[in-house]
UniProtKB/TrEMBL annotation:
Keyword Transmembrane among record annotations: yes
Descriptive protein name: Uncharacterized protein
Protein source organism: Euzebyella marina
Spans traversing the lipid bilayer: 20-40, 46-66, 75-92, 112-132
Keywords for this protein: Membrane, Transmembrane, Transmembrane helix
Length: 142
């Protein structure tokens, strides 16, 4: 039991500047996606500050845990994490899906949350790549 905990502590023990970049990138990404989802009437958070709880407090630690894994493993584990988040968000009604939105029309209403989880699971490998590029471009020699 100590091995997974020890591994997680190692993954989360990173340069504070890296964490700051994750927080800024994910916060801006979350605001943009929430705005876009509302603008095209797909889905949105009930409250704007949920960007902080979902993108920073939930997704940043998961990204840190997954960051050194291959793309396909980050996506697979990210799919589990996003499936739980999507299920909870719509189940607790802290997220709002617009009726008859584009995804409902294209995939069907029963596949909406699955489609969202499949899409947002890409955040982990893509986010880790983007944050890594930013971090290394700023602090490569330090």
């Amino acid at each position: 039991m100590n091995q997974p905990i020890s591994w997680a502590k190692t993954q989360l023990n990173v340069d504070k500047r890296l964490i700051a970049i994750y927080c800024v990138v994910y916060f801006l990404w979350g605001l943009l996606m929430n705005w876009f989802g509302a603008a095209v009437e797909i889905a949105k958070f009930t409250y704007w500050w949920q960007v902080i709880t979902c993108y920073i407090l939930y997704m940043v630690p998961i990204s840190l845990l997954l960051r050194n894994l291959p793309f396909h493993m980050q996506y697979a584990y990210g799919l589990i994490a996003m499936g739980i988040l999507e299920f909870a968000g719509y189940g607790l009604e802290t997220s709002y899906a617009y009726p008859n939105n584009l995804l409902d029309q294209f995939f069907g209403i029963r596949n909406f949350s699955l489609g969202m989880a499949l899409f947002f699971a890409l955040y982990f490998p893509v986010g880790n790549w983007v944050v890594g590029k930013i971090y290394h471009s700023i602090f490569k020699g330090k």
